[in-house]
Amino acid sequence: MRRTLHASLLALSAMVAAPAQADMFKPSKTDQVKLGVRASAEIKKKEKVLPDSDQRTRLLREIAGKLLSSSPDGPKEPWQYSFDVIDNKQVNAFALPGGPIYFYTGLIDKFKTEDQMAAVLAHELVHIRKEHWARAYGDQQKRALGLSIVLILLNANKTFTDLASISNDLLVTLPFARRDETQSDDIGFDMMIKAGYNPQGMVEVFQILRDAAKGGKPPEFISTHPDDKNRIKRIEDKITKLNRNFSAQRPLPW
Which secondary-structure segment (H or E) carries 125? Predict the structure, then answer.
C-alpha cells in the first residue's frame, strides 16, 4: 500500500515538475473549430440569419477584414472566421469557439458609426484568438471533476474533451472570466486603432449598453462583463494616455 502511494506521489511530482503541457481539459484549437462550425450550422437552421447581400452583413464583414488584416498573427491563425447578422431585437453579439461571430440587429440598430461596430467586433475576435471559451470550459471541467489525483495519474496523457457531449447552447452561454473580458477590451482597443478606427467608438458602445441596461435586465453582451462605469473610465484613460488625434468616426451608411 505504501509503495503504491509512494509511486503515485512520485508520478504526480514528475507531472508537476515536467515542462508545461497542453491543458488536458481544454479543447484543442482543432476541436474549437469543429465545435464552432457545428454550432454555427445549427444557428443558421434555427435563427433568421440575414443574407450575404444585406448591407449590415456586408459592412460587418468589411470591418472584420480590416481588423484581421491589421493583425500580424492573422495568416498564422487556425481559426475559420465567419461573420453574420441575426434578425432579432436582442442587444447582443457573440463569438463561437473557432471563428464564427454573430451580431443581432438589435445591437446594430443602436450604433451610429462603423467605429462602434468595430469596437464590438474587435472584442469578440479577441475572445476567439485567446481561446477564452475553451479555457472557461476547461476550468469548468476541472471544478466538476475536483481534479482527483487518481484521475490525473490514470489519464495524464489523455484529453477529456468529448465534443459530442458539449451542447451548442453551452458554446454561447458559458460565461467568461472578468479578466478575459478585460483582455478582450484592451486588445480589441489596440486592434481597432491599428485598423484605422477611432477608439472613442468603444467608449460609446459601453455607454450605449449601459443605457440599454437601465431599468431592466442588462443586455447579454454585458451581463458577465466588468462594471460599465469602470470600463468606460479605463478606455477613456487609455485614449488620454495615447495623447494623439484620431480620424473622425465614420457614420453608418444607412
Answer: helix 114-129
Q: How far is CA 146 from the centre of its chain?
A: 26
CA atoms within 13 A on the CB side of 35: 28
pLDDT of 136 above 90: no
Q: Phi/psi of residue 83, each to 5°?
A: -135, 120
**Exposure of 159 by Cβ count < 10 A (0-12 exposed, 13-18 middle, 19+ buried)?**
middle
DSSP assignment of 5-55 equals: HHHHHHHHHHHHHSPP---TTSPPHHHHHHHHHHHHHHHHHHS-BPPTTSH
Residues 6+ apart with CB under 8 A from 139: 25, 177
| 8 A C-beta contact, residue 111 and residue 197 | no
Q: Which three cell numbers stand for residue 124?
A: 469578440
Rounded to whole angstroms, the Cα distance separating 55 from 50 reads: 9
Instruction: Tell me if residue 212 falls in helix, strand or coil.
Output: helix
Mean pLDDT lowest among 74-78, 102-106, 216-220, 244-248: 216-220
Query: What is the average pLDDT across 27-51?
Result: 96
